[in-house]
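Quick one before lunch.
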Amino acid sequence: MNELFLLKLGEIVLKGQNRRSFEKQLTSNIARRLRGYGDFQISLVQSTVYVEPENEDCDLDAAWDACGAVFGVVSRNRCRACEKDMDRIFDTVLDYLGDELTTQSSFKVESKRSDKRFPLNSIQISQDIGGRLADAFPQVKVDVHHPAYTVMVEVREKAAYVHGPAVPGAGGLPTGMGNKAAVLLSGGIDSPVAGYMMAKRGMEIECVHFFSYPYTSLRAKEKVLELARLMCKYCGRMTVDVVGFTEIQEAIRDQCPEEYFTLIMRRFMMRIAQRIGQDHGCRCLVTGESLGQVASQTMEAICVTDAVCEIPVFRPAIGLDKEEIVTIARRIGTMETSILPYEDCCTVFTPKHPKTKPNLQIVMEAEQNMDVEGLIARAIESTEKVTVKYYG
Ligand code: ATP
Ligand code: MG
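Model of the magnesium ion complex:
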């Protein structure tokens, strides 16, 4: 059928000397994502990745869907290739897009000619194909300003390509170009979105989850692993370190002032996540915090939390409203799972009146009564490592 995908590069085209390494990473990421869907030839020419099935056995629909989750691609076209000849191009438009075109109220043709040896320029190509289509579909109006549908013709080096309007890609930069991050993944709405946002900037992701059995149930843990699996659609396979947090939470409950429970708990999470993360080669932490959303997310509380962090902490949702985070969660497919009603360890020993303007001195004094190192060591010792991947 000569059907193939053209994936257009996003920000990579702005890169200078290191552009080649971004391109290589992108094509290898695409190859890896398509492995389960058949044999594809993947090549990159003039800021466009060509994804061509090598035989009839390829699952094109699944491959197309997978390409939509590859960072580094700004827009994509599923198209049909043909000989660089106006009659062939017209026949291909009729055959490939004819059904779609008949259902439209209006159309226009847009062309691009990157093969400058082709005798017609882009305006002439559009006029010629547009004229023939207007004769073939007299009921569909030509409207060059606000068309309901745009037929695209691209005349490139190897062939001509015919397709409808471009579909958005995942945007961002290719996974693997931006170091590695340890995401503190809870079962909530925000942290999967935060992980996705950093992955979009090219980071590889590992997750750390704190689990307080029996205060939090096995179903709550399953939910978090499911969220990680859903993130894999964008981030690739990852490890989730599930850390036993019960002893620490009980120690905080027994030894610390109640209004500081959440904050001290968060400091333990950060200390542990950075140690586990560094073992995986992670150079930063990522959380789903958003300024002012809850008491532990005020500027003052964040400063107290960050006082134990030795590596950068990225909080990509810091400036987003809940509604904006929810919009992203829905788009990437994590929302439905996030709102399943299982408890998180944060909700287990929630203080009635958490400090919104905490005092670091008081927090440090409270921690002095605890066996911080022993608690951390035992929690890390209890870690269960789970490898997850997307099952699309
Ligand atoms: P989320 O929707 O991501 O759970 P939240 O608004 O409920 O966020 P908190 O519960 O205060 O906020 O948690 C803030 C951040 O701390 C989370 O976004 C996440 O990064 C981290 N976090 C909270 N609980 C856990 C946990 N059990 N395991 C790992 N990280 C956690
Ligand atoms: Mg939470």
